[in-house]
Write a structure and sequence with these properties.
The chain is mostly helical. 55% of the residues lie in helices and 0% in strands. It starts with 59 loop residues before the first helix and ends in a 10-residue tail after the last helix.
Length: 164
């Protein structure tokens, strides 16, 4: 069982390539289609970029066809870009709104903490003695000091204090 041909029947070169054919030329007197209306795609595959087709240079109608397809793709890309930009703008607006709400909540939290602190200081200051109690304490202290000094002098307890 030897093969007679060098190419296997299942290999890439099983079907021989056909030379490309040029499109039929329009009849004289027929008007050419405008460049904005894309024509039907040719049945043959485009060559890889940088490699010329085996059939020769492209005709003007083929170049116009390619340009129309490129422009169509560019417009679709621009549309996608515009939709993406609009989506990002909406996301940015939502993030800004959430950020402002969080800042407001933080301010409210700060205000609540400040109110609590002021209330605690107020409670502590309410428990302090008033002006009348302080004056009364000062008078009592002065009277007790005078009475104790008189007692020390009468009982001659000043001799117990060491002198220099």
């Amino acid at each position: 069982m030897t093969e007679a041909s060098p190419n296997s029947p299942t290999g890439p070169n099983f079907i021989p390539p056909t030379p490309p054919t040029s499109p039929p030329s329009p009849p004289p007197g027929a008007e050419a289609k405008p460049a904005s209306a894309p024509e039907a795609r040719p049945a043959q595959a485009s060559p890889a970029p940088g490699r010329p087709m085996a059939g020769g240079p492209l005709s003007a109608s083929q170049l116009i066809d390619q340009l129309a397809r490129i422009e169509d793709k560019c417009s679709r890309i621009e549309d996608k870009y515009a939709r993406s930009e609009a989506l990002l703008t909406r996301v940015e607006d939502k993030v800004e709104g959430a950020s402002s709400r969080m800042n407001e909540a933080a301010r409210q939290s700060d205000l609540a903490a400040l109110r609590t602190e002021v209330r605690a200081v107020s409670d502590r200051t309410k428990r302090l003695p008033g002006a009348g109690a302080l004056v009364l304490t000062a008078i009592i202290t002065a009277v007790v000091t005078v009475v104790l000094m008189i007692a020390v002098q009468r009982l001659h307890l000043d001799a117990l204090i060491p002198q220099r």
